Amino acid sequence: MNTYPLLRALLFRLEPETAHRFTFNLLDQAARTPWCGWAGRQVPDDPISLMGIELPNRVGLAAGLDKNGAHIDALACLGFGFIEIGTVTPRPQPGNPRPRLFRLPDAGALINRMGFNNEGMEALLANVAARRSRTPIGINIGKNFDTPNERAIDDYRLGLRQAHRLADYITVNISSPNTKNLRALQAADQFGPLLQALRQEKEQTDRENGRVVPVVVKIAPDLDEQAVRDVARLLADEGMDGVIATNTTIERTAVAGLPHAEEAGGLSGRPVRAASTAVIRQLRDALPRGFCIIGVGGIHSPEAAQEKIDAGADAVQLYTGFIYEGPELIGQISRALRDARHSASHQTE
Ligand SMILES: Cc1cc2nc3c(=O)[nH]c(=O)nc-3n(C[C@H](O)[C@H](O)[C@H](O)COP(=O)(O)O)c2cc1C
Q1: Which atom of ligand 1 is nearest to the CA of 298?
Q2: Contact in structure between 149 and 191 (CB atoms under 8 Å)
Q3: Contact between 131 and 72 (Cβ < 8 Å)
Q4: 322 within ligand 1 shell (Cβ under 6 A)
Q5: Long-range pairs for 126-129 at CB < 8 Å and ≥24 separation?
Q6: Distance between CA 105 and CA 89 in Å, rounded?
Q7: Which phi and psi (to 5°) does residue 245 adopt?
């Protein structure tokens, strides 16, 4: 029996950030009991190799839920195939004043303007080093809010260098709407130099640490087709390993008139599904064969996950769908993606 609807009814009576803390308290405690092994076994295996990383399944956790990597073991118990932590900035910062996270239940959506609240890279790395689980970890890096955009490259270089030793992959987040001018880094004149600097830093750090760590870039759903093509060309030209599509949207048409719809920030969940799938399709069209795409945005069902795969994604990530549908969604999606892959391979035999 799925008990999540009951738990959700309770959690949704709490202020969103209180519900977040309460849930992680519960999960952290449960992770130390035999429940952990049981929960993980509910997610069927669907292993793939993604950018050289061996994943037990193709359903990952998207960035932003565990900003400090403080709950990796609890999240790993739930059976995620990979866990992306962060966004982390070089120095700790408090983020925007509260309230900064809003539910739009009628739309299956959230609006957030958290503003990269996090305890900084040092604290995050200590948490990663102390974890017991072996689920692959992505570390999502950003810039401090008070680092001017002309010096953004310094924050990303530093983030890459520091995260390199412990990350299975590193995500460069230039698509959050909640740090002033951050998304301007996606424009070709700034994106090219940023990627060149990151490539240099990556190659040097790969050599120094004697291991190759894939670097992916996370982009917004609000780019037009030409901008997506420009991004794709630069990603491939500058030797990046993958792309995550997408972050939250600043579009509000789909939620117009609903309570909280006018709050500033990024909208996530069901209303972003179509836009994010469209960007994935455009990316797959423009990128070289084999270039890794991780699809995220509005995945609340196995069908929505399959839509991302059909559009060209190699793996998917969940955030808002996980909040609305609960942990059972991970197993449901993994099973559906595995079954679809099996039936496709039978048909081609
Ligand atoms: C409360 C909240 C905080 C988020 N924080 C981050 C973040 O720190 N870094 C990031 O790259 N994405 C962040 N995201 C974006 C998600 O990772 C994801 O890309 C987006 O929400 C679309 O997926 P979804 O519809 O499944 O939520 C955040 C999303 C939410 C709802």
Answers
A1: 25
A2: no
A3: yes
A4: no
A5: 127/68, 127/69, 127/70, 127/72, 128/69, 128/72, 128/85, 128/166, 128/167, 129/166
A6: 31
A7: -130, 115
Ligand 1 atom with the smallest distance to the CA of 218 is: 11
Contact 297, 218 (CB under 8 A): no
Residue 176 CB partners (closer than 8 Å, separation 6+) = 87, 116, 142, 182, 183, 247, 248, 266
**Structure token digits, residue 250:** 């600043």
Stated pTM of the model: 0.98
Instruction: Look at ligand 1, atom 23, and give the residue with the nearest C-alpha.
Output: 297
Q: Which two tokens stand for residue 80?
A: 């995620």
Instruction: Report the pLDDT value the prediction gives residue 349, as an integer from 0 to 100.
Output: 65
- What is the model's pLDDT at position 254? 97
CATH T-level assignment (fold) for domain 4-339: TIM Barrel (3.20.20)
pLDDT at 190: 94
| Distance (Å) from CA 222 to ligand 1 centroid | 14
Closest residue (by CA) to atom 28 of ligand 1? Answer: 64
Q: Which residues of the chain have pLDDT under 70?
A: 349
- Backbone phi and psi for residue 246, each to the nearest 5 degrees, phi listed first: -140, 180
Convert the pLDDT of each residue in 272-303 to its tens digit: 999 999 999 999 999 999 999 999 999 999 99
User: Residue 176 catalytic?
Assistant: yes
Quick check: CB of 114 below 6 Å from ligand 1?
yes
Centre of ligand 1 from the C-alpha of residue 61, in Å: 10
Q: Where does 46-141 have alpha helices with state H?
A: 72-77, 121-130
Among 175, 176, 268, 276, which one carries the catalytic annotation? 176
Atom of ligand 1 nearest to the CA of 87: 8
